[in-house]
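queue> holo job accepted (adenosine-5'-diphosphate)
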Amino acid sequence: MTDILLETQGLKKYFNSPAGEVKAVDGVDLIIRQGQSFGLVGESGCGKSTLIRTILRLLEPTEGKVFFKGRDINSYRKNELLKLRKEMAMVFQDPHLSLNPRMTVFDTISRPLKIHGLARKKQELLVQIVELLHTMGMQAEHMVRFPHELSGGQKQRIGVARALAVEPDIIFLDEPTSALDVSVQTKILKLLEKARQERNLTFFFISHDINMIRVVADVMGVMYLGKIVEIGPKELLLSDPLHPYTQGLFQAVPEPDPDKIIQEVQLEGEVPSPINPPPGCNFNPRCPFVWDLCKEVEPMLKELEDERRVACHKY
Ligand SMILES: Nc1ncnc2c1ncn2[C@@H]1O[C@H](COP(=O)(O)OP(=O)(O)O)[C@@H](O)[C@H]1O
Ligand SMILES: [Mg+2]
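queue> job finished
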């Protein structure tokens, strides 16, 4: 088994709001191994973006710990945080917002290279930027373009090239293709996978789109109302989902794999508010298998065989 790259322990992020405390991330224990492509899926608002922003220390955790290469990232000093920014990169959801409209492609990708001292002279920058553009299926001539001269797909390729530029260990990708057409999406996901293999990278994808996650992930997690409810190898989760929420989610996929066994479960109702989550298992108001225990006791993420973990009193 490969080394653990990233681990969270009891990670929580609560926000204050006029309506009360928002429990956006509510006790997440995760292990990401070196070289994995991890995909976390869950409905909009379940806390995916908050989770990765807290892992990246763009947000301070309310409680819990993040270990990167075995070290608690809260113990990093200011000068070490810059190094962390090089080791953990991020691709943002909306390429139209994440690129500075006044910067050319050359300037956009040069910036992290200069900040982290990976290239200083113009010649070094040019060589590296051309190589990064080629990796993302673009040409040297794109260097002089401004964001408004690029298509949505090209902008996101630049977003990825910028993340790759710092030679990170792990890249977090927050709905990286949800703003793009399906054909453009597929191309970018293929280029990403190629780059991951060539550069021995670890990916952490988050998306509400199960069809996207099942293409990119080798290990899959399912999030519901601030908690991970199920996690394990992708093939196992797809062929035999255990948590009632996972079963409902996969049934909602428009074109399910014909080989896949899907149990008859209907997801009823709306996602409850993370301000006053239901007591016990927070999925209990929507669960077709609910019993008394589920309304009183919160199920822990239990380890089953084959590296699967599920948080449900049925198991
Ligand atoms: N800065 C914030 N202040 C208050 N509430 C927030 C803030 N950021 C996110 N939230 C709330 O936290 C919950 C999780 O949001 P988010 O992490 O964006 O979910 P996802 O990425 O899964 O759609 C939502 O209820 C959202 O409204
Ligand atoms: Mg989000």
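queue> The longest helix spans residues 182-199.
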